[in-house]
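## Example record

The block below lists the input lines for one assembly entry, exactly as stored, with component labels intact.
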Amino acid sequence: MFELLGVPPQALFGQVLLGLINGSFYAILSLGLAVIFGLLNIINFAHGAQYMMGAFVAWMCLNYLGINYWAALVVAPILVGATGIVIERLLLARIAKYDHLYGLLLTFGLALIIQGLFRNYYGSSGLPYGIPPQLTGGQNLGFMFLPTYRGWVVVASLIVCLATWFMIEKTKLGSYLRAATENPTLTQAFGINVPLLVTLTYGFGVALAAFAGVLAAPIYAVNPNMGADLIIVVFAVVVIGGMGSIMGAIVTGFSLGLIEGLTKVFYPEASSTVIFIIMVLVLLVKPAGLFGRAA
Amino acid sequence: MTDLASSATPSAAVVAETDDSAARLHRNLFIAIAVLLAIAPFVAYPVFVMKVLCFALFALAFNLLLGYGGLLSFGHAAYFGMASYVSAYTAKNWGLTPELAILLGTAVAAALGLVFGALAIRRQGIYFAMITLALAQMAFFFSLQTPRFTGGEDGIQAVPRGKLFGLISLADDRALYWLVAAIFMGGLLLIYRIIHSPFGQVCKAIRDNEPRAISLGYRASQYKLAVFVLSAGLAGLAGATKAIVFQLASLTDVYWTMSGEVVLMTLVGGLGTVFGPIVGAAVIVAMQNYLAGLGSWVLVVQGVIFVACVLLFREGIVGVISKWIKKPL
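Predicted structure tokens for the full assembly:
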């Protein structure tokens, strides 16, 4: 068997794939954070909890209602997105006029509530969620074995990310969104319902997180804590990329996942901290972030 | 930079008018706190009071940064936890006397604060909060992956309380209590002094209007870094003392939930008030003791308090009292 840089190719490409999968989640989650931040100016600390909710709703759909994976891929984001809309209307809208850091504190409280509730009812051990039958098995690509589901996760995330990018950058609705991000007062004066746009944007960002959660359910066990540590890594991703650009968030998410995967091959001890170390380096060299605009 | 803290304090005119009477009130409050500290171990369980004092000092340190520097750090567990590891490790493995172990823990926390602070102040507002959180998570992973130093999942257990200055045994709870009370009172007076010093006034000016402070010739980032290091060091003092009191340093101390707890204590007590964090810490620690049997419900209750405070009670307990009596507290 040939070796690449002293590492068997199976291990190397296996980790690269795992890195890409993590990168998919980083990309979708940081994209959601960036979209929400653009319009609401808050960092949604509950994003990790909402990602976890997506996985749980998929699990509940399957076990209580018999709704399969493919339907859950649509149903879970809609349901969780709807809870996001309720949260925005009832809570976030009421503190919009105060310092934006209050939004961070409020959503942090929400994250604690959501996590605590799920931990109470489902424990912390994790629930299994099977891979849908159409996506079991895998292909042998010669240099590596590709499990079909993992390939699907990367492709599906890429599609969703690019569709979001297209919607924001190339459609009429997206132009409203960008206008409202730039200057909400003026946009409202042109007759666009900005508060409604804000509510829908938050719902959409939350739905993105839930979608990532459904994708993650068959890979990681469905667990109340699955989003808690992930969201902190996503914060680091957002600091590295800067929240100014949609494409920037996608590219940064995927590449950092890839770097993390490669670190796991060559220096596993650093794999959980490599993204934070990159964040430190970026702060030293380009404090505004790779794709960010200087404040 | 933020109205998060300044919204809680009365306007400058009110402050100026009541400056004299406020100073008198504060002096009386300090005397009241000293009296309370003196009788507390005789009416309450000393270990509980020591826990409150450690967390109160932690919250005071956090509030120094947020309330007077305008900087919301979401990673204060790093300084609290790392100091607690250092003091536990040196007291247990090097046989240091407790005061040296605590001082060493404090120094390490301040040094860590210097490095993390220098990085974090390169961004502002929400980014600052995210960076401090991410850096603290790095400290957490470091603690998780160096079990030789931190004991990994077990933490450092059975830390000896030792003899103060090598003379006075602290094995008795009452004896240890006087040391903790002295550390707390010292920390409180130091923070009060910092807030009311010319340095503290400049920090407040930077908090309220950074570009203006810069245009007046103040090097804003140096002041921010200085207040960050002071805050980290004092948080470390609290963590190091906690390790000696409970004879334990564990991963809980350095995890992000601890950072969240100190934010909650400060929020409940009153952001940007001198005495608020003490009240907030007492409330939250008492609540945790009371609800300890409920498991994960504690998390839910804390979350509900967070949401309720942000929506309805932004001034916090002491902030409301301060508004009521029209004097800064």
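Residues 170 and 196 of chain A are 20 Å apart (CA to CA). The radius of gyration of chain A is 19 Å.
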